[in-house]
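agent> fetching stored inputs for the 2-acetamido-2-deoxy-beta-D-glucopyranose docking request
agent> found them:
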Amino acid sequence: MDLKPRNLTKSIIFFIALMITPKRCLTRPCVNLIPDCLLEIFSYLKYDRKTLFSCIRVNRLWCRLAIPILWSSPFKYYSQSYTYKIINTYITCLNIQDKVILKNLGLKNCLINMKSLFYYPRFLESFVIDNYTLGLKKWVKENFQNENLLRAQQIVDNMMMDLIFNDNCSLKKFKYVNYIEISRIDFLKKLSNLNLSLINTFEFLGHGYSKEMYSNILPKLFNQMSKTSRNIKHLSLYFPKTMSTKTMTTTTTTPTTSSTTTLTNSTTSSTTMSTTFNYYMIDNNNLISITENSDNSTDLDLSIINLIKSQNSLESFSTNEFWMKCSTEMIFNSLISHSNSLKFIKFFTLINFNQSFFKFIKQIHSLRTLEFKRFLFFEQFDSTLSNMIIPQNYLSQVQNIYLEERDIPYRLIDTIIRITNHSLKKFYSRRINPIILSSIKSFCPNITHLHISLEKYSDLLLNIIKNLPLISLYLQVRYISLSLKSCLPNSLKFFGLDSEIDQVELEDLLNNSHLSNLLIMELLNISDINENFRNIFIKFNEKFNYTLKELRLEKSLLKEFILLDKKELWNSRTFKINEVKNFKYTAYEEIFGSPYYKYT
Ligand SMILES: *[C@@H]1O[C@H](CO)[C@@H](O)[C@H](O)[C@H]1NC(C)=O
Ligand SMILES: *[C@@H]1O[C@H](CO)[C@@H](O)[C@H](O)[C@H]1NC(C)=O
Ligand SMILES: *[C@@H]1O[C@H](CO)[C@@H](O)[C@H](O)[C@H]1NC(C)=O
Ligand SMILES: *[C@@H]1O[C@H](CO)[C@@H](O)[C@H](O)[C@H]1NC(C)=O
Ligand SMILES: *[C@@H]1O[C@H](CO)[C@@H](O)[C@H](O)[C@H]1NC(C)=O
Ligand SMILES: *[C@@H]1O[C@H](CO)[C@@H](O)[C@H](O)[C@H]1NC(C)=O
Ligand SMILES: *[C@@H]1O[C@H](CO)[C@@H](O)[C@H](O)[C@H]1NC(C)=O
Ligand SMILES: *[C@@H]1O[C@H](CO)[C@@H](O)[C@H](O)[C@H]1NC(C)=O
Ligand SMILES: *[C@@H]1O[C@H](CO)[C@@H](O)[C@H](O)[C@H]1NC(C)=O
Ligand SMILES: *[C@@H]1O[C@H](CO)[C@@H](O)[C@H](O)[C@H]1NC(C)=O
Ligand SMILES: *[C@@H]1O[C@H](CO)[C@@H](O)[C@H](O)[C@H]1NC(C)=O
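agent> prediction call returned; pasting tokens
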């Protein structure tokens, strides 16, 4: 392969070209592809880094066309060593003065004389600051002989930011998270002077910020962006801790232990003055404290409202409830101004949740998917839940509900299902009970995707899944009845099971269920497997004309399986065996490509 990369690559690309080239390209008499056709072909290879790398070695034209694509999201493929190389290349693009500064700071490497062929930062379209930062730290650690690595990091980071964010910036996707060790205050100040007009996906996850940041720098940034960046389609915000401008002088020390359910109403450990502040924080997934008594919106609230309103057409929005209670209506009104385009909303937290919530959501006509991570609300609310199930509250437009956490109250889940007025197609919840099952039976006749976790097995379950037009079913329940085999609907394409069963029971299940459309099966907890395990699937696959394409096994199960497998029989048809990732209970990742930053 390595002997003749040029010829081999060239023939592969021509082969691909023949398959995917637009017709107008082929009507040309000669074999050589004209640049815009090549470009189109390369764009299909956007996520195939290896092939693109081969392309740049074919000839000059190919190189010139492939490089921008290759360098449009270099931080996407995260591995420490790859990101390290990317940073190395970016450093060679620095101007000579900056390189001298780095040398004086203790840069070991002799990058000063290296001149890059291209000005790579110009091609950057998608930038993920967290993955970049990991690579940067490694790069600085390995390239500086210096006591003060943190300072070197800071300086290199500033230079990198200047390379990426300037008047030539063509970023479309930008994910920002705050790393405490690297202060990016200067960067954020500078950012508000830039024209980021091409941004269409913007994730801003601010952690551990100061009062100054929330009351001044960020509002300025978002207000400025609402003038220049109007094409944001996907917006995600996370501000775990916010304070109003008139807050106290000392930062609150958070109580170290606190249960998830205790909502503290008084200032737990704060100073004495009559302050107005809104303070909540999720740390290790525990709610630490809530204190609120402000009746004025913060500048941050207003700037975000401004940012949302100024967009041409927002399609997805994710947020925690960072705003003051009195800003709720304005926040929702800004979202309602996108009621022709906004399809997806996720709440990382909802705090002041009450009946009004459904009234607001109802007005977003284009909304299809609603996702919740966590609700924090007060007891008196629970008692009014049943009052909400009235046609005035029906959310007939919503088709997909994702509930990510286990601690969402059953009654709330039940209410949400009931008010969707038969429109649900996908329902994912880490927690349900028999009452919710009955509601699914009665209120979701057209549901196609059901990913659920039950604490206890209930006969109702079988009864329900039998009669639903399910395409995807994921079940997590400690034990499952063997009658499941006769209840799995033939429409299933995806089936996942996390339930204690042994190999014989699994064989029985597969022998006797009719799943002729099944493409992917995921298994998490099969005990007592032996060398016959693989045969179960081979037989199953023969029975259904090799429809099953992929088997995903829990990590240790996969290891066990590989030890037992002798690899003879799998290859007869293309069939993948992979590790199961967690069952899906969230849609957020589909839009933003990565889980939101977890503060550690
Ligand atoms: C960042 O790196 C992680 C691996 O550490 C990877 O899973 C993730 O996809 C990367 N983020 C993006 C947006 O590519
Ligand atoms: C922007 O691009 C132009 C032309 O490519 C170049 O002359 C200029 O130096 C660039 N500006 C910055 C800040 O990189
Ligand atoms: C920002 O840049 C775009 C082109 O990239 C231009 O059309 C627009 O007028 C600029 N906006 C401002 C406020 O400078
Ligand atoms: C919050 O404070 C009010 C009045 O100060 C009190 O009546 C209420 O019980 C408190 N709630 C909690 C959850 O402590
Ligand atoms: C709210 O803002 C108004 C006008 O900005 C101000 O007059 C009022 O004192 C503020 N109220 C509080 C409680 O801070
Ligand atoms: C519900 O919450 C909104 C905003 O938090 C508030 O304006 C409204 O008065 C509340 N309604 C009720 C009935 O509590
Ligand atoms: C509930 O759904 C039915 C159709 O299934 C529809 O006719 C009706 O208008 C919906 N009601 C509301 C309040 O959306
Ligand atoms: C459910 O599906 C049936 C048949 O596919 C269809 O007639 C009915 O309108 C659907 N109901 C809703 C609420 O979408
Ligand atoms: C499954 O069917 C095969 C025959 O196709 C049979 O040999 C095997 O014993 C059956 N397994 C169970 C658990 O019923
Ligand atoms: C399978 O289930 C048992 C009992 O619930 C549990 O102890 C075990 O850890 C599970 N195994 C896996 C791989 O999840
Ligand atoms: C498998 O394919 C054959 C011929 O293509 C067909 O006769 C048979 O019905 C198929 N079996 C199933 C279970 O789809």
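agent> quick read of the result: The longest strand covers residues 344-350.
agent> awaiting further instructions
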